[in-house]
Amino acid sequence: MKLPYLAAAASALAVSTTASAISAEEVYLDAVKDVGHLRRALPNAPDDYTPTHVQCPASRPSVRSAASLSPNETAWLEIRRNNTVEPMRTLLSRLNITGFDAGAYIDRVSNNASALPNIGIAVSGGGWRALMNGAGAIKAFDSRTDNNTGTGHLGGLLQSATYLSGLSGGGWLVGSLMMNNWTTVGALQADDAGSVWEFGNSVFKGPDTGGVQLFDTAEYYSHLVSDVDGKDDAGFDISLTDVWGRALSFQLINATDGGSSYLWSSIAQSKGFQNGDYPFPILVADGRAPDEVLISGNTTVFEFNAFEMGTWDPTSYGFAPVRYLGSNFTAGEVPDNDTCVVGFDNAGFIMGTSSSLFNQFLLNLNGTDISDTLKKLLGHLLSDLGEANDDIADYTPNPFFQYSPETDPGANSTRLTLVDGGEDGQNIPLHPLIQPNRHVDVIFAVDSSADTNYSWPNATALVATYERSLSDIANNTAFPSIPDQNTIVNLGLNTRPTFFGCNSSNFTEGSTIPPLVVYIPNSPYVTLSNESTFTFSTNNSYRDAIILNGLHVASMANGTVDETWPTCVGCAILSRSLERTGTDIPDVCTSCFNRFCWNGTLDSSTPKTYEPTPILETADAKGHASSKSVGLWTAIAAAAVTVTLVL
Ligand SMILES: *[C@@H]1O[C@H](CO)[C@@H](O)[C@H](O)[C@H]1NC(C)=O
Ligand SMILES: *[C@@H]1O[C@H](CO)[C@@H](O)[C@H](O)[C@H]1NC(C)=O
Ligand SMILES: *[C@@H]1O[C@H](CO)[C@@H](O)[C@H](O)[C@H]1NC(C)=O
Ligand SMILES: *[C@@H]1O[C@H](CO)[C@@H](O)[C@H](O)[C@H]1NC(C)=O
Ligand SMILES: *[C@@H]1O[C@H](CO)[C@@H](O)[C@H](O)[C@H]1NC(C)=O
Ligand SMILES: *[C@@H]1O[C@H](CO)[C@@H](O)[C@H](O)[C@H]1NC(C)=O
Ligand SMILES: *[C@@H]1O[C@H](CO)[C@@H](O)[C@H](O)[C@H]1NC(C)=O
Ligand SMILES: *[C@@H]1O[C@H](CO)[C@@H](O)[C@H](O)[C@H]1NC(C)=O
Ligand SMILES: *[C@@H]1O[C@H](CO)[C@@H](O)[C@H](O)[C@H]1NC(C)=O
Ligand SMILES: *[C@@H]1O[C@H](CO)[C@@H](O)[C@H](O)[C@H]1NC(C)=O
Ligand SMILES: *[C@@H]1O[C@H](CO)[C@@H](O)[C@H](O)[C@H]1NC(C)=O
Ligand SMILES: *[C@@H]1O[C@H](CO)[C@@H](O)[C@H](O)[C@H]1NC(C)=O
Q1: Distance 49 CA to ligand 10 centre (A)
Q2: What is the CA 530 to chain-centroid distance, rounded?
Q3: For the domain bounded by 64-639, which CATH number is listed?
Q4: Which range has the worst mean pLDDT, 52-61, 176-185, 250-259, 578-587?
Q5: How far apart are CA 340 and CA 237, in angstroms?
Q6: pTM for the structure as a whole
Q7: CB 440 within 8 A of CB 489
Q8: Burial class (CB in 10 A: 0-12, 13-18, 19+), 413
Q9: Which of 137, 301, 416, 467 is the most buried (most CB within 10 A)?
Q10: Alpha-carbon distances of 203 from 16, 243, 251, 256, 535, rounded to whole Å
Q11: pLDDT digit string (tens) for 337-396?
């Protein structure tokens, strides 16, 4: 039991001082100016983790309708999409699309954003497994990875992409790249003085002095608690997600204090983003009404992008500037006599929100191999939090308060509560990428979900998004049809990449044509990369093996497992664009579509247990991942209880 220990941590927090009365907008702007030359996500919060009241800027922040893209995104896209032309030209020219002059084609459409292929990448949830498997895919797509621009390699796809969405564990990956100046996966995993991804140090134990962090476990907890304490003292509602987000930041942000000053909105202030050097980041979370435990398929899906937070769904149907979250919006405006709030959008809090799956943990507790005593204890702690509605991420004041009173069931609530973006079953963050306003042509959907008995994906996430696209909440989004999971497993569609939605003539005339979905399911190449979602510590050799495995999954071992794959990736990128411009589909692409598209075949008989084994020589025996440190959930839950009770 860690409680006495936490009590010590809690009393330590009483000593710590917080919240000197910083209040001026200028302070915030000065901070931005000071570190602006660093060209990276900025530690620019005015008062560390504590949100701060400032005078509203002359043009007061407001909520806007989701009818169109934001002017900020529209302006940014012009820059980014131009920057994708050259990488796309290089990549497609290299991918050996026989009988097709990819260079000439891209040159021809480069002036015309509506003809040019528009690429999105989506990285699913699934805890650290999803972060690592997703990181492998990103590494496979990154031209900065060593030797990644030769025959058979997919380096350059990341540089060609417009959007990069992440959810839960996948959101940690996206956030970690964004908060660390768009560094490479290789640099984040490097075992050197600047190492960041030290997942051998459980999130419940805190950093080891081996990495960039300086604290021991005691100091770690006292930091977590005192940061959250500061926010509470300043009058903001706190929840377990605050502690969780602070803890995650120590693993994801390269800063000795766990990056308490890094704001999500600082992405838009960093030079690399402004120059359109990398894709547009989006994290996803679900709305969860108080008292709700199971999340329905038609819950509101919220996104946090570089500029805004909000939803395209016909409920709140609006977006608020992410930088001014915490401000008291009423009917979309901050009242004239009120101040604005900045510093609420702590990057760790946003990443924690997208991965706030405490109620899922409670629901899954019986399935874990932890001891009965501990199970009981955790069950109690988590249900207490649940009853107090503290197992959510609290976005009070609700930015959409009275904004859409006719359509938003939460419009009259001053509280907005969010949970893990995968809790509605849509564990791949496709929602932002199927919005007609964004005109995405192809989504590389990296799925690390734990659907089957042995934690492999079976496309349940795609099924969820497909089913949602048929209901009223879809609001003009469309999605390719997806077969049942038995079919997926029986046809082996979860053992290799599969395309869905190849034939756009299947979509009715005049309706939205959804993106082509390139489904990339986690499967074993060089290691059993099916580590449990509730594994809290992964040593570096297993971490590296999962990342390498993910690289092989996405590239089919750089085209060595299927030599047509690199070409077929090129065809997937081009497919919608070729149709729009009335260009003949090269024969080699027709072969690709015959090979990789789901052709409508169904086999819904119950498959036998899915237990794949690595198809290549193993990189590393199954690592020593353990879920022993799950006991420390007690600690974090207790920390939150302490915070709630003591403060
Ligand atoms: C951020 O990355 C860019 C591009 O690689 C580099 O020029 C710049 O020096 C980096 N900034 C920091 C603070 O590391
Ligand atoms: C978004 O655009 C508005 C209007 O041009 C501008 O005032 C604001 O600074 C932009 N926001 C960001 C984060 O770039
Ligand atoms: C993007 O490229 C087009 C065509 O080359 C050009 O007209 C436009 O000015 C560019 N936009 C930006 C923001 O660089
Ligand atoms: C390119 O594709 C053709 C088939 O279209 C194949 O014969 C050839 O070997 C491939 N070249 C490379 C370098 O992979
Ligand atoms: C990259 O390629 C070069 C030359 O073929 C080789 O010497 C080097 O070991 C390769 N590096 C990696 C990381 O594979
Ligand atoms: C982390 O920060 C340290 C110190 O600023 C730097 O040396 C190192 O390169 C950074 N690591 C990454 C992956 O950015
Ligand atoms: C969608 O929401 C409505 C009411 O909000 C509910 O009655 C319905 O059962 C939900 N449908 C699904 C598929 O969850
Ligand atoms: C938020 O604004 C509403 C409407 O003006 C007001 O009634 C309420 O007191 C404000 N709350 C805070 C915390 O400022
Ligand atoms: C602003 O004015 C409204 C209406 O008069 C009042 O209800 C509210 O409390 C005021 N808010 C602040 C922060 O003074
Ligand atoms: C877990 O198991 C316990 C004891 O068998 C049972 O009382 C409890 O309802 C179960 N919880 C869930 C969420 O299934
Ligand atoms: C919210 O309150 C307003 C005014 O009382 C009412 O007209 C509206 O129907 C309510 N909306 C919801 C979703 O309850
Ligand atoms: C697919 O995953 C879902 C969700 O975990 C599960 O209920 C179902 O049994 C699985 N089906 C197959 C065939 O693996």
Answers
A1: 37
A2: 19
A3: 3.40.1090.10
A4: 250-259
A5: 16
A6: 0.89
A7: no
A8: middle
A9: 137
A10: 22, 11, 7, 15, 10
A11: 999 999 999 999 999 999 987 666 666 666 655 566 656 666 666 666 666 666 789 999
Span from the CA of 421 to the centroid of ligand 11 (angstroms):
27
Q: Are 63 and 312 in contact (CB under 8 A)?
A: no
Cβ-in-10-Å burial (0-12, 13-18, 19+) of 524 comes to buried
Q: At what angle do helices 71-94 and 102-109 cross, to 10 degrees?
A: 160
Length of the chain measured in residues: 647
Average pLDDT over residues 64-69: 98
- Rounded to 5 degrees, φ, ψ at 358 are -65, -35
Reduced DSSP (H G I as helix, E B as strand, rest coil) percent helix, strand, coil of the chain, to 5: 40, 10, 50
411 C-beta closer than 6 A to ligand 11: yes
Residue nearest to atom 10 of ligand 12 (CA): 452
**Is residue 111 within 6 Å of ligand 3 at its C-beta?**
yes
**CA–CA dist 529, 525 (Å, integer):** 9
Query: 561-604, pLDDT tens digit by residue?
Result: 999 999 999 999 999 999 999 999 999 999 999 999 999 999 99
- Cα–Cα distance between 212 and 257 in angstroms, integer? 9
Pairing of strands 280-287, 52-54: unpaired
Q: How does the average pLDDT of the chain come out, rounded?
A: 86
Residue 28 pLDDT exceeds 60: no
CB-CB neighbours of 600 under 10 Å: 9
State how far the Cα of 324 lies from the Cα of 48, in Å rounded to an integer.
15
State the pLDDT at residue 632: 38
Contact (Cβ atoms closer than 8 angstroms) between residue 516 and residue 509: no
Nearest CA to ligand 12 atom 13: 486
d(CA 569, CA 88): 12
From 139, 146, 185, 555, give the residue whose CB has the most ligand 5 atoms within 8 Å, as the site to mutate. Answer: 146
CA 620 to chain centre: 27
Amino acid making up residue 38: L
Q: 290: closest CA among 422, 397, 417? A: 417
Amino acid code (one letter) for 323: R
Q: Is the CB of 370 under 6 A from ligand 10?
A: no
DSSP assignment of 73-85: HHHHHHHHHHHHH
Q: How far is the CA of 144 from the centre of ligand 1 (A)?
A: 14
